[in-house]
Amino acid sequence: MNLPGKPHFPRLICIFLIMMVLLSCNFLTNLVSNPFPSTPSNQAASETPGVAGQPPVGSEQPTAEPDPLDHLLAMRSIIIHLTALQSDGSSSSTQIEIDSAGNMHVKYSLPAMDPKLLPQGFDATQLPTSNELLVVDGKAYQPSDQDPNWMSTPMDENYIQTLSQDLHGPDGVAPWLDILPDGSLISAGQETVGGFETNKFTVNGAVEGGAITGSLWYEPQANALVKAELHVPAAIYDVTDKSPTGELKITLDTQKADVPMVTLPSAPAATAEPSATP
What we know:
single chain; alpha+beta; flat; 10-stranded antiparallel sheet
């Protein structure tokens, strides 16, 4: 789903990211069969035949399995914050409130569009920098002042899948974890964060253009990644710039919370046509 005004990577960067993910092992999917290792290396997961994402020779490629980010979306009574801070100071964020029934209140915050990317004379202030959705029974509805019947027509019939794709996109943690080399994770003990008892891991993985660093917090009972902080050098994600500086900072933070039940308002009653006077 392309939100109004939501920034997208240039075409070359998107192609580059897709190639990196396809050529690498699916780090997050591997965690389903072999969760975060207690040793300083994740090499065992990548070399074990038949783990998720790496079928034995001669077998068919399996369909995608839920990974720790998908398991995060399956949790209840939580609030998720995902923020991507670019090297130029612009940022985008997503807040996901999930109630005890699995329904959601989702808020997007978007950076202003660069006027250089818009048609000449176009007023950039006309583009929204925020968006709000209500997700009930997996269907997304967008509140609208212009459409009084917005609650009757979902804009996305399977928004959980769409949201998962957003969390696995370039502003999320998944693509960058997928390109980490073996030995990039080091166990840092246990830590309580957001009301969760987690296993903490430090991240330090050298890839072409620099090193991806940060920390991960993994909740083993739900097999969910509940917190992350990654620092990605601009030289890695901005392949169009020959001498980029700065970094992309991605933070994922999840808190247990008493989220109010998410429901849709009732559609307005149809106004009866006045009867003709005989």
